[in-house]
Amino acid sequence: MTFHKYQGTGNDFVIIDDRAQQFDTTDHAYIAHLCHRRFGIGADGLMLLRNRAGYDFEMVYFNADGHPSSMCGNGGRCLVAFAKHLGVITDRAYFLAVDGPHEARVEADGTVRLKMIDVAPAQPAELGEDDVFLHTGSPHHVHFLDPEEHHALAEFDVYGHGHSIRYDQAYDPAGVNVNFVEVPADPSHPWPVRTYERGVEDETLSCGTGVTAVALAASARGAVSPVQLQAAGGRLEVSFDHRPDGGFENVWLSGPAVRVFGGEI
User: Fold this and answer.
1) In CATH terms, are 2-117+257-264 and 123-245 the same topology?
2) Measured distance CA(28)–CA(32) in Å, rounded
3) Quick check: pTM over 0.85?
4) What is the pLDDT of residues 21-32, one digit of tens each?
5) For residue 128, what pLDDT is reported?
6) CATH of the domain spanning 123-245
7) What mean pLDDT is reported for the chain?
8) Architecture per CATH, 2-117+257-264
9) Residue 172: other Cβ atoms inside 10 A
10) 78 given a catalytic annotation
């Protein structure tokens, strides 16, 4: 089987051209094996590019645990870059993902811009006054660290605290992704973010739907569109418009999407 490896700010994926629909999507153990970093190719998730009537392609996404997942923003951007690599698209795409249709653009410098779904207003989370919940295609808990703690995020126990919130009874049974945010002194500066992802069950270097949730939540703390986000794996940008009901529309996630290598397994 031929595969391709892509990464978007360190969020990495095994991608397979499955337009012939020969890949067995029911074999979750095999998908997990392909994503395993010791015994497989190694990735945060696996994606299939498939034909879909009325669209340029369909995105079928699995977490590293082998199970189907909700929307992955960086994955979507990487799949758009892969579609261009195959010649399926040129510089614009209209594709179907698990959360519905998406538009995307590939800029001349390789930046991939992905339009996300409209997002409902941020909801207070039960776990603290500095916590909110948003669904940006995937469910996200956002925790803002105390701004008095300068550079506290670098030493924060993302795995321990993230694991605890991910499995908290407030989010039973599906669980939640968890983002920890350092509030910059100047809200126009990049917002540092670290994310614990369900399905990976660990910290990832970046999460597209996660930084989208952070940018939208940060708008209540002085951040103005477009918001710069600094993930462990690189810089991303999120732009958006406010809706009268407090929600968000015209939400775009932008950043690099890079082919790392390809091979056979």
Assistant:
1) yes
2) 6
3) yes
4) 999 999 999 999
5) 81
6) 3.10.310.10
7) 96
8) Roll (3.10)
9) 9
10) no
- How far apart are the C-alpha atoms of 118 and 102, rounded to whole Å? 11
Question: How do the domains of the chain map onto residue ranges?
Answer: 2-117+257-264, 123-245
Report the b/e string of 95-129 with b at 16+ CB within 10 A.
bbbebeebebbbeeeeebbbbbbebbebeebebee
Q: Is 72 a catalytic site residue? A: yes
pLDDT tens digit sequence for 164-220: 999 999 998 999 999 999 999 899 999 999 999 999 999 999 999 999 999 999 999
Concatenating the DSSP letter of every residue in the chain gives -EEEEEEETTEEEEEEE-TT--S-TT-HHHHHHHH-TTTSS--SEEEEEE--TTSSEEEEEEETTSSB-S--HHHHHHHHHHHHHHTS-SSEEEEEETTEEEEEEE-TTSEEEEEPPPBPPPEE-TT-TTEEEEESSSEEEEEEPPTTSTTGGGG--HHHHHHHHHT-GGGTTT--EEEEEPPPSSTTS-EEEEEEETTTTEEES--HHHHHHHHHHHGGGT--SSEEEEETTEEEEEEEEE-TTS-EEEEEEEEE-EEEEEEE-
Q: Which of 16, 176, 200, 207 is catalytic?
A: 207
Catalytic residue among 41, 72, 116, 178: 72
